[in-house]
Amino acid sequence: MKTQLLVETPTHKWLYFGRDPEKNDKIIDTNQYLVQSGNQSLLMDPGGIELFAPMLASLVRHIPLEQLTYLFASHQDPDIISSLGLWDQTLPKAKLYAPWLWEGFIRHFGMNNISYEPIKDKGGKLQVGEVELQFVPAHYLHASGNFHVYDPVAKVLMSGDVGAALEPAEADIFVDDFASHISKMEYFHRRWMPSNRAKSNWVARMRDLDIQYMCPQHGRIFKGPQVKAFLDWFDSLDVGIGLD
């Protein structure tokens, strides 16, 4: 599994995990992100059960396992959190932060030791070492209870399925040409995002934030001016085409 340092500040760092060349071709590729500060870490959308072994092997090259104190699930999909039962055996004292709405569903993946910390609809905050992260509402994008993670210090947004693209494992992890990247995102967003109202609400929220890295759960990462380019494009996109 590919690992890359995304951002490092005096207090913490962001790491990327993904592009696993050994995964089954019929399984959708996913990105995982870790924030590490002091002796605490948060792993966001840790992935499906089939990714547990390569994820664990990659993580322990960067942090002691006891420093993985928090998990985050943006919503309930299996590619997000079906590895939970294995993390539950590996990290019995960890806490999982996830939407309150999905607790009864997420527990089906196996959860006897890790504690479930429900995030209210309005969002919340989490202190990880020396950095305070924000859980930003992203409801109906695409799940009815859904959150993203914003770091105001490193100026990073973990954006879940927003910004997602479907590409081969050998693709680069950063967007190099936004215009050509649109074709890899358009159908996904038009079909999987059900609500133009929810989309517009989210875009308005994001325009108020200083985002230098937008990190989706699938596909490539947007940097600098590409973030605004994505917001402008997404704002004008008609979604919910399954009803056409």
TrEMBL record:
Source species, domain of life: Bacteria
Domain called Metallo-beta-lactamase: residue spans: 29-218
Pfam entry (one): ODP
The protein's name in its UniProt record: Uncharacterized flavoprotein
Species this protein is from: Shewanella amazonensis (strain ATCC BAA-1098 / SB2B)
Lineage: Bacteria, Pseudomonadati, Pseudomonadota, Gammaproteobacteria, Alteromonadales
